[in-house]
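One thing: can you check what follows?
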Amino acid sequence: MISTSILTGDSLRQRLERAIAFAARQLRATLKTWTPDRPAPVHTRAGKWYRPRELWTDWTPGFYAGQMWILHQITREPSWRAEAERFSRKLEPRRFDRDVHDLGFIFLSSYGRWHDLLEAGDPQKDRVRDILVTAGTVQSFRWNGCGSHGFLYSFNGPQSLFVDILMNVRLLFWAARHGAPAEVHRRALEHCRTTARYLVRKSGSGLGEEDGRVAHEAIFNAESGRGEFRCLSTQQGYSPFTCWARGLAWALYGFAEAFRYSGEEEFLETAERCARYYLKRTPADGVPYWDYGAPQIPNEPKDSSAAAIAACSLRLLAEATRDPALASECRQAAARILETLAGEEYLAEGHAGEEGILLHGVYHRPRGWGVDASTMWGDYFFLEAIEGALNSLPS
């Protein structure tokens, strides 16, 4: 169970401001090598940023631009905005990409942040909005409506529902609010309901199961007119019947956001179940092992990227839940996670040869990709969590 943060508000603020200053130095150095004419890196290898020659899926470049947007938002330095715009523009053609389920990751962290900074009446705001609406609409085309429970399918094919896609459904909700067809909103709602029904444990007995446990993947019959659920599966977890830590964090974040956009109580209740699982089962420092069912715990890698996502998610849920005790526990846990991640063990400051910001992340443990590494999404959500914390801590 996660312990309470030992730092006072002032002490935590100082630690987070130091982390931001370090992050800015690291990112400035990265920009010298990973320029806009190159594809974005994915994770570090032996401390150096690395992009595999053959990608499973190209889902991370928005996090690179997004880090620049966050640093601009926190520091107000114009140079960060100039870099953020430069790196965001190169992503614009991806709005038509129908081969990935990751357009929310790519565009909300880049163009979404850009849109939020533009003043009403700025003609550029309309262009940025249209790019986001297009991306959200295109993402909605990945639709499996064969059965009674439709969903946006993963890059594995129409039979495959990933928990990760919740983070991309946010883009459909956003697009529907800003002019996309009503069908885009309907699909977003149905996808969230299907995910809650099949991937998040709710009640009843089962082998090794507990309320709030999240499965990574569900497989359905993709034959027209069928669509029935077949089985659980996983790509990045230890097994279909254990809880992959980053998948749990995606679910917690995604359902909290789905509730914010839709007001559907089911989504709030699902986010609360995921949060209780995280709060109960995660080690005292707030950083989970890469899978809660990995067989060699405590001799398994931890995943700091999952912790960074969870810190963002717990703050969102604390603002949404009507349970004062849970809200308090979420806020305390988010602070504890940030205290840990901004400390000596996880912050790359003082670790020679490390080009990332946040150490000890995991990309794909079963395949051995990016294990005990810095990751683009880990660094991004770490900065997002710091941004939220600095906005809420006393000045």
Q: What stands out?
A: Residues 9-33 form the longest helix (25 residues). The longest strand covers residues 229-233. The two ends are 30 Å apart (CA to CA).
